[in-house]
Design a protein that fits this description.
This protein is an alpha/beta fold. It has eleven helices and twelve strands. The chain has two domains: 116 residues, Aldehyde Oxidoreductase, domain 3 (Alpha-Beta Complex); 151 residues, TIM Barrel (Alpha-Beta Barrel). Strands 6-11-10-9-8-7 form a six-stranded parallel beta sheet. Strands 3-5-1-12 form a four-stranded antiparallel beta sheet, covered by helices on one side. A two-stranded antiparallel sheet has the order 2-4. Helix 8 links the parallel strand 8 and strand 9.
């Protein structure tokens, strides 16, 4: 059964590097407004507050942005459900630094909480059926690791991180290679030691994939009844119970239940990252 690496932590060195990059983009040559208005010695206390119900992802950002010289208190952990109006954290320290870093910090936190919150809605529907909700590579360039992390915080699972992490043969790969059999034979000759997943649209492609010896199938843009028949066929074949099967293609919250009842192992949803709305969170000075 195919299992990709799960991104449940963000390495500290990577995190520090990315935040430095984000801040440099927003503050290339000091924050002119704050510099002109606020004393360098001014100290303030502020709270990070949820303005709607959310699932937290990125609580660690608070100490990363407001660490040295600050007193911080975080009241929740990542994955927690937080009600509208709740105080997520309290920070005390340089007024100027809070004002300067506020927007970049909130942009990232809101983005991650939005992904976690949306993922959690999908995961709650899929959980009774023991089906995994998977993300995709439809992520924002530059912050993919953050977004993948947010998916796991929301109760979802990570598909491959990048093109080096797994083999997924899609329709255009098949056309370029000639056919499914040729595509799989070429991949196997490379001895990558990675599982091979094949995107299919019909039963004939499944038969060819099974004969060629794939490790998993992505059933693309199929209706639930067709998926159920494909799953039953795959499972009935020799070694079929160990083959990974995922469904994908335009599946949303209103249609998800009909797909998780088909017997698939997972449903991959690009919307988790490409369509998640940023959560409403703000910083308030006390």
């Amino acid at each position: 059964m195919i299992e990709y690496k799960q991104h449940k932590i963000i390495p500290k060195e990577y995190l520090a590097k990315k935040i430095k990059e984000f801040l440099q983009e927003d503050i290339p040559n000091t924050d002119k407004t704050t510099e002109g208005l606020i004393s360098k010695n001014a100290i303030s206390t502020a709270v990070v507050q949820a303005e709607e119900n959310i699932v937290l992802a990125g609580g660690f950002l608070i100490e990363q942005f407001f660490g040295k010289g600050f007193k911080t208190k975080i009241f929740y952990k990542d994955g927690d459900f937080i009600k509208k109006g709740s105080i997520i954290a309290r920070i005390q320290g340089s007024t100027a630094e809070i004002l300067t870093k506020e927007r970049v910090f909130l942009n990232l936190l809101q983005r991650l909480c939005g992904i976690a919150s949306l993922t959690n809605e999908y995961a709650k529907i899929a959980k009774p059926y023991k089906v995994k909700i998977l993300d995709t590579r439809k992520t924002t360039p530059g912050i993919r690791t953050f977004e993948k992390y947010a998916v796991t915080a929301g109760g979802g699972y990570n598909h491959r991180l990048d093109l080096s992490s797994g083999i997924l043969i899609k329709d255009n790969h098949i056309k370029a290679a000639g056919n499914i059999t040729k595509a799989i034979e070429k991949i196997k000759k490379k001895s990558y030691q990675l599982p091979i997943e094949l995107e299919v649209e019909n039963m004939n492609q499944i038969r060819e994939g099974l004969k060629a010896g794939v490790d998993g199938f992505l059933l693309d843009n199929m209706k639930p009844d067709k998926i159920r028949k494909c799953v039953q066929f795959i499972r009935s074949q020799k070694g079929g119970k160990n083959i990974f099967i995922e469904a994908s293609g335009g599946i949303n919250l209103s249609t998800l239940k009909s797909f998780v009842q088909t017997g698939v192992d997972a449903v991959s949803v690009g919307a988790l990252t490409h369509s998640a709305r940023a959560s409403n969170i703000h910083i308030e000075f006390l």
